[in-house]
Amino acid sequence: MKITGITAQVVQVEFNSPFVTAALSRTHQSTIIVKVQTDEGVFGIGESVPTRHVTGETIESALVVLKELEQKLLGQNPLCLEKIHMIMDQHIVGNFGAKAGIDIALYDLQGKVMNKPLYQLLGGYSDTIETDVTLSIDEPKKMAQSALEFVQQGLKILKVKIGVHPIQDIERIRMIREAVGDTIKIKIDANQGYNAAEAITVINSLQKYDVLSVEQPVPHWDIHNMAYIRKNISIKLIADESVHSHHDAMKFIQQDACDMINIKLMKSAGIFKAEKITALCEAAGIPCMLGCMAEGHVASTAGAHFAAAKRNVLDVDLDGSLLNKPQTYLSGGYTRKGGMITLTDKPGLGLELDFDYLNEL
Ligand SMILES: [Mg+2]
Question: What is the whole-number distance in angstroms between the Cα of residue 138 and the centre of ligand 1?
Answer without folding.
Answer: 17
